[in-house]
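Annex B. Sample input.
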Amino acid sequence: MIEVDIVRWWDTFEPLFHKMGPLDNMVLHFGYIITAAIAVLGVFGVLTFAPPIEKSERKLLNKSLVAITAMILGGLYYSNTPVVDGPNLIILATPTALLAVVSFISYIFLRNTRTMVCGDGDPKRYLIGAKLLPEAKKVLDGNFHNLSDERQIKVGQPPENAKQYFQLSGKDPKYIWTADSLRQSFRLMVISYVLCVLSTVSTLGSIVIELQEAEILREESGNSVTVRVPARLLFDFDSAEIHQNSKKWVTKLAFQIEQSGAKYVRVVGHTDGIGDPEYNLRLSNQRALAVKSCLVEFGRLSNVSFEIIGLGSREPIYAEQDQFGEDRPEARQSNRRVEITYSPDK
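Annex B, continued. Sample output.
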């Protein structure tokens, strides 16, 4: 039931990106940048919320997080490559987002209860335990009976609390709290931090991958289907060679065409208005041919009739200049595309 609700929510949310006109690609790219920045900050412990652990331990933790993060993102990417039965990563992102929130709240709670800043000009945050040593407890209670000389308070009143005693004792946590409680604090802090970072990376990575796929628009009209693929998902700028890692989009499309029983496919290439019109016509035609070749290579489409057209910049979706004659790069990017229409008959 939950899964159905999530899918319905995403189906409603996704088209909003494409109702923003030529700004939709900019919004998505901004999301990609924010995702990468948060992931990097979290993985390398640059955030001020990193656990108060020793430098050598932090290096080991960072290396481990880098390796695990790479495996998670790689796994998410490859899990999305199957032509059929690929997972909906938005559904996967929901429990990982919940885990990220819970682990973040847990981590903040632990930072407030299991760490301490002395406040005497020392910026370092110290790990503390939940259980006092018997000797330390006696000192705080003002009972110095049978205590060793080093535990005796020779001058003044006993410390008012564990924090003050910690400062007076040379800032050694092992002098105040039990070793078991310090180890427990350490483990809880690191585990909650690691869960927070990895679940956040998984959540944002899943959303980014799905947003990339959401850029491919599919429209139905009667018994024909038109799929619009942004050129940047397939080609480098000014190139008609499809990226090796972008062929999955064409593979999925080839499977959809095969399953639909289509007998006719029309592939139309479009460019922006920069450059020589004749050159743009050739480039758009070459890109349409490249997509057609991939469709034939990855799909069983020998019985399908193809029509290849290059329109250059003749049919833009958005105006590439504003009312003052200023260039609109986002509009140009949206206008560079390949449109594939398939139907049972011509």
